[in-house]
């Protein structure tokens, strides 16, 4: 189980430049263009409703343009697929300018496709002589199909009718207590790679704390602390730096972040409350690494049941819950108190909707980080929501499964309505 957890962490915690949905579209476009080896005549892209929703209004690094079309254009004109989710790092100013001009030619066509699969991106290119196709599915960098002039180079299993949720992940077969016990037994060498996430995510947060970017949620909290309207405490520190990092990322600041479970904002939420705790109460590298592993691990555990993308905000219901568990552990909480922090989070933010990636996400991340610290602190003093309270079950694992049912089954119609509302606004 130790190796399973380490492998999962290495798979789910990786750097990305820009919001992961448009970046995944850029990645698929870059791969399809490499396969085409021709001048593009026609480009048709089909994406799942959740990818469409999350990419509609978000800033893209290197440009002031928003959304999937500019990300696709950048992937086609300058992206390098070998960079994975950092595919846009290879573009210089000239390539970005050409991409903006290319976008304005309306060659790139993007449409939502009718599927329950949360992450689905299909890029079809037609050149003067050649054709190509690339499909990403289930994970933002997981290619399942590659095609060059009708010659299939990669042919994985594709199903658009069945929602794929990671309930068969090995970590879903253990309890939260067993997950944490396994992490506690690990050495710094096993988990040291996770520490890069603190440095990377604090760095992008500092940009938006020094300069008002996007809404300026983090910047506003910082100014409020300086003026004495808010106290310089752990909760506000966590809220400030997490929101600031989202301000920068959602506005398209050209800096990578460390992701968690396929999402940059998840990575910010899972990591930065721990960074805030460390700044107030300095920890050893080993304790920090283990806390990060707990945060990412609990986040992954919850995402097994809520799905990769959903109608609820994954930062609010998953990543913040992972952070809360980790902060409780750092404070010396026992297993019942760590589980209690998770129960408190499920009782608190389970209804936070996801209305796509955008500047306003910084507000949600501020709430998520604040709630994570709040739930951890009160759990430390054994203030825990009782069993059978709303969707909170008899055990923490049951509560997580209930959260998954509400997120993936109960809010399907909600997600459809959110997408229709956003789509209608963008057409008007």
TrEMBL record:
Serine dehydratase-like alpha subunit domain segment(s): 85-419
Top-level lineage group: Bacteria
HAMAP family: UPF0597
Listed InterPro entries: Ser_deHydtase-like_asu, UPF0597
The protein, known as: UPF0597 protein SAMN02744037_00989
UniProt GO MF annotations: L-cysteine desulfhydrase activity
Signal peptide bounds: none
Organism: Tepidibacter formicigenes DSM 15518
Sequence similarity: Belongs to the UPF0597 family.
Coiled-coil ranges from the UniProt annotation: none
GO biological process: L-cysteine catabolic process to pyruvate
